[in-house]
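Continuing the batch. This is chain 6 of the set; chains 1 through 5 are on the previous pages. Same settings as before, nothing changed between runs. Recording input and output for traceability.
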Amino acid sequence: MVHRLVVSYGQPDDPAAFDAYYRDTHTPLATQMPGLVRFTTGSPQPLDPSQPAPYLVAELDFESEQEMGAAFTSAEGKAAAEDVANFATGGATMTHYELNEVHAPR
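Output for chain 6:
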């Protein structure tokens, strides 16, 4: 099974500064977390333009919830978590869940 952490970042005060910091500083910190098996990011667009979308969404996958917990108690995980306050001026919401794969009928 895969356990996923989703971080949704709100609109930053300075998007260019957010992007540079996220790319050059935060991503290298996050990718050092032990047990991380996949790390993806994207800039979502709402299907309904009247609804706001996060500025950026990051998905971090671990083999289990226990592996995720261990990652965040590690020195690398603590550093990555503490770093969020340095750039996420629009706030950050973190959620996690066990992935359940559903196959579409053919």
